[in-house]
Design brief:
Helix content: over 70%
Number of strands: 0
Structural class: mainly alpha
Radius of gyration: 23 Å
Number of helices: 21
Strand content: under 5%
Order of helices and strands: HHHHHHHHHHHHHHHHHHHHH
Oligomer: single chain
Length: 540
């Protein structure tokens, strides 16, 4: 065991983790502002642009569990620095890319780096802040930075791309990454990991299952849910997940201890992460498209318009962390999901003639809801596992969030596409557009999961107006569905995460929370609480 760092070093560690996390979260959304410029400069089509965005998500989500497990086994400091190096290097490749294949290669490298560094970030925090009160505050800051990175993406990316071109969306990561590397190499605590046999079979099956699910969700809006490619990927996901559970139950050192999901608090928090990402990723993606392609705003204006949601995140996250530490994660999570649902429901009433005054006041509700949700999820999950499994738990929550985000974008995109295909032909016919032209317009508008709406500004007014109104119809439907999902998620969390009598919502760390994995008597393994990593030891 290494000695605990002093207060000053703990704050430097937290700053390093937050700096790297902010960079990776920001990159999730800032690149979306660069897509029109990339399309022009690199002659990229809609499908190409889709993979510039989602190739990163595919690699990131698929390798998260592997990254968390490798950190627990090989050392979190080592994996964090390797991941940060890869992410920074991938950003440099993207910034210098002169062709589409090089850009996509850089995005893949970024995804690998993010999958390695993200789980270590929370795991290092878990073993650095040993006091529950300090840990709750640190997690509040960490979660606030995570949500802020997602929310600030459009606000930063729009003006940046407008002023300096699409490469600036990647250049911004390079100095931040170098600074985080220099600081991390000096202050991050050394750990040797827990050397032992890696669960290779579980790694392969789990990675294949997640990759199949993410690929199917990415491709479904553009190819259709009945496409052989989508069905094949979905089948791979179902088979992979079905095999993964029994394999992990039998593994001596599993990549993911699925018995963790027997704990209602852990399972409820992971589910909440999926739900909030389902709603928020889709809303952030398609709201930006609405502001630019329907309302006719520039990328910079659309980014600045999102600012009312960002400032409140940093206020709400620490408040939520203190609430979770005192009363458990359920209360702030239910409040956060409910606020997100309310804000999204308000946005679902926008139309093609809306002004900023009609919907800006919904954005602070969404920002507050995000801030109230992220911290309690993290606190709940990390409070249910020992430090030795912190990387695995961190990877699990991040994987569920990423899957939720990809699912939200895919399902909302499919709803918008279906609505466009349904109502746009009749609107074009009413506007006097010839049938052959109307068919081409519908095909363009629905390309890439409704992404083709971005081309509506380059066509005659009768066609562009029909496209804008039809897209807004689909957006209203998709936003209402997202609001319903968030409401149902809040109800499910309220029921699932009810406190257990005689057991605190965030258990105190016990002897098994050290960095070493201690063998337990065979008899103790049969008890449900010991399946959670030594909870019995926390009550002795």
């Amino acid at each position: 065991m290494h000695p605990a760092p002093d207060a000053r070093r703990r704050q430097l560690i937290l700053s390093t983790l937050c700096l790297a996390l902010f960079m990776s979260m920001l990159d999730n959304v800032v690149v979306s502002n660069a897509l029109p410029s990339i399309s022009t400069d690199l002659h990229a089509g809609m499908i190409d642009l889709q993979w510039v965005m989602e190739g990163y998500s595919l690699v990131f989500a698929s390798l998260l569990l592997l990254g968390g497990t490798l950190g627990d086994r090989l050392g979190r400091r080592r994996l964090f620095l390797v991941g940060l190096t890869l992410f920074t290097g991938g950003s440099l490749v993207c910034a210098l890319a002169g062709t589409l294949p090089i850009l996509m290669t850089g995005r893949v490298v970024q995804g690998v780096g993010a999958a390695l560094l993200t789980p270590q970030s929370l795991a290092v925090l878990r073993v650095t802040f040993l006091s529950e009160v300090e840990r709750a505050r640190a997690i509040g800051t960490w979660s606030g930075v995570s949500a802020l990175g997602l929310a600030l993406g459009p606000a930063i990316g729009g003006p940046l791309v407008t002023a300096f071109g699409w490469a600036s969306a990647f250049w911004i990561n390079v100095p931040v990454g170098v600074a985080a590397l220099a600081l991390g190499a000096r202050v991050l605590p050394h750990d040797d990991g827990h050397h032992g046999r890696i669960d290779l079979l579980g790694q392969v099956i789990g990675t294949a299952g997640v990759a199949g699910a993410v690929f199917a969700l990415i491709e479904a809006p553009s190819r259709g849910w009945s496409s052989p490619t989508v069905l094949g990927s979905a089948t791979l996901a179902v088979v992979g997940f079905a095999l993964f559970v029994p394999v992990e139950l039998r593994a001596e050192r599993p990549m993911l201890d699925v018995r963790l999901f027997r704990d209602r608090i852990f399972a409820g928090a992971a589910f909440a992460g999926f739900v909030v990402s389902f709603g928020m990723f889709g809303v952030l993606s398609y709201l930006g498209l609405y502001m630019q392609s329907v309302l006719g705003w520039s990328a910079a204006a659309a980014g600045i318009a999102s600012l009312p949601s960002t400032g409140v995140i940093m206020i709400a996250a620490p408040v939520a962390s203190r609430m979770a530490a005192r009363w458990g994660a359920r209360l702030p999570l239910v409040i956060g999901l409910s606020l997100c649902a309310t804000g999204v429901a308000i946005l679902s009433r926008v139309d093609a003639t809306a002004s900023y005054a009609d919907f800006w006041w919904a954005l602070p509700l969404i920002g507050t809801g995000m801030g109230m949700s992220f911290s309690p999820i993290t606190i709940a999950v990390m409070g249910r596992v020992p430090a030795a499994r912190a990387g695995m738990a961190s990877a699990t929550t991040n994987a569920t969030r990423e899957l939720g985000g990809v699912a939200g974008i895919a399902i909302m995109g499919s709803l918008i596409t279906a609505r466009l295909a349904s109502v746009l032909p009749s609107r074009l016919a009413a506007a006097g557009v010839p049938a052959d032209v109307a068919r081409r317009v519908v095909d363009t508008a629905t390309a890439g999961g409704a992404g083709g709406i971005a081309s509506s500004r380059d066509v005659p007014h009768a066609i562009s107006w029909s496209m804008a109104v039809s897209f807004t119809d689909g957006l209203q439907l998709a936003l209402m569905v997202a609001a319903v999902v968030l409401v149902l998620g809040a109800v499910a969390v309220f029921v699932q995460m009810r406190p257990e009598i005689g057991r605190p919502s965030v258990p105190a760390p016990g002897p098994s929370d050290g960095l070493e994995l201690r063998p337990r008597p065979e008899r103790a393994r049969s008890r449900p609480e010991d399946a959670l990593g030594g909870r019995a030891g926390a009550r002795h």
